[in-house]
Amino acid sequence: MHPFAATPTDSVTALGELRLIAAIRRWLGAATPPSPAGIGDDCAVLPPSRHSQLVTVDPVVYGEHFDDTIPPRAVAAKLLKRNLSDIAAMGGTPRAAVVALALDPKVSARWLEQFYRGLAATAHTYGVPVAGGDITRQQGGLAATLTLIGEARGPRVLTRTGAKIGDWIYVTGALGGSILGHHHRFTPRLPEGVWLAGRSEVRSLMDLSDGLAKDLHALTPKNAVPSLSAKAIPISTAARTLSKRDGRPALTHALSDGEDFELLFTVGARADYGKLEAAWHKKFSTRLTCIGRFTRTLEAGALNLVDFHGYEHLR
User: Fold this and answer.
1) CATH code (residue 280)
2) In which element (H, E) is residue 13 found?
């Protein structure tokens, strides 16, 4: 669906700012609580928490993260879920979201209505109240930026640091080919992230947004390299389909495409990883794969990630 109106009467300009805000409140429905916990005041007021607070922010930009082929409801779902994936990557749970819009005056009011109704549906699914936001003008463009507040479920927050040489590297799900639909139809791994934060043998955690070949560097400890087995990389069906279309190896897609939104984590070298895997499979149906470990030098036959790249935002 094209996000820009064919006539001025169908655009957000015809509504004006105050009527648009009132419409947004109506479109969100029960997904936004009454002020001051929701839309209506200068700030939303959230109840205090006994646990560590988490804050993340991500946008969706027309022409960059979505185009006319993606329904506005799916665009909104992607916006919230990519932030939820960040919360999952630290073993947390979401608490509230705020959304900032940058709109060209020609943006279609119907498109925006479907966007907010999609946001409301996704917020309801994951129990996230939309507490407020902001609207500004952006000539020629359309962008929505969501800030999500979360909290740790317990005393421990997993971060990207903590891995050591010898530790095992794990990934959830299957990788690559996200452009064929996964990039907006994925499921953020919130329960899995909470579970991992409660396991003492798990040392570090992050989500995969820019591709395994790039993101893994953030977990790699000093003076170490990741020695990955090519045969162990969980390649998605979409990556294999894409490979047949463009001739690039499916493994390259799995390592480089990005927007997988799976979890990447490390397990201590001396841990009983068999016990961890058994406990995982008893709890989740989500695929879990050990793809290698951190070593001082690259092991014989291991993938050399220098030969691959992930998504670069400014290139």
Assistant:
1) 3.90.650.10
2) helix 12-15
